[in-house]
Amino acid sequence: DAVEYLKKSLAFFQTDTSAAAKEYSEAIKKNFKYLSSTFFNDAGALLDPDHYSLAIENYEKFKEWILIAEPTYNIKVREIEFKNALATVYDQIFLSNFKINAMFYGMTEDLNKQVIALDTNNWSGNYNLAMLNYNYGVNIVNDMSANMETILVIAIDEILEQAREKFKKALPYALKAYALNPKRKEVLQALDGIYTALYEEQKAEEFKAKVELLNKDK
User: Fold this and answer.
1) Which residue of 38, 60, 155, 163 sits 20 to 30 Å from the alpha carbon of 185, by its own alpha carbon?
2) Which ranges of 70-152 would DSSP assign to H, the alpha helix?
3) Residue 152: its pLDDT value, please?
4) Model's pTM, two decimal places?
5) Is 70 exceeded by the pLDDT of residue 151?
6) For residue 148, what pLDDT is reported?
């Protein structure tokens, strides 16, 4: 309600060029900026599997109102931050039951791609896409192993190929994350896991050795 009344107040001074009008407008914009930031904070606090829709609603309000308060505000930084965080929530939902929550795979992938479109060299966007696909492949294999008795022999190769496609899809994003930060232990471990899953043992050993070296350096 406060924001809506501030918007109306600001409208009164749009055609007034007096010094007093300018002073009032600046005061209104400061209040506007403060209130807008509270919506961003609320969005962050609501980023969990149960409340993410409210988080999105609060973030959209923040995005609209901060640009009224400060038209030159660099929204790109906040876009990347929020999308990265929201993608992590979607990923949690997807991995909690990858069959029932299959739609969240595409939603997670899309958000991470949006982050990379905003910043090609965003480490988190690339790493998260790698892990999304790697974990999907692992879940496919684990699910097959747990249900071997009910799976036809002819279907096994098809299921393993589905998993392999996810591992292959994960690889370029993991390599990009590695190129951006070769000292991050989690990406070295991810590449070890991906190459192992793709039966590229030499490459897997290479990254396993890098992890061990990193551990020794610490």
Assistant:
1) 163
2) 75-96, 103-118, 123-146
3) 63
4) 0.86
5) no
6) 64
Q: Which residue has the tokens 């939603």?
A: 107
Q: How far apart are CA 41 and CA 61, in angstroms?
A: 12
Q: Where are the alpha helices (DSSP H) in the chain?
A: 2-12, 19-45, 52-69, 75-96, 103-118, 123-146, 153-180, 185-197, 201-217
- In sequence order, which residues have a C-beta less than 8 Å from that of residue 28 and are 6 or more positions away? 6, 9, 10, 13
Cα separation, 121 vs 177, in Å, equals 8
In sequence order, the 6+-apart residues with CB closer than 8 A to the CB of 162 are 137, 140
Q: Please give the Cα distance from 148 to 56 (Å, whole number).
A: 41
Cα separation, 79 vs 102, whole angstroms: 25
DSSP state of 100: T
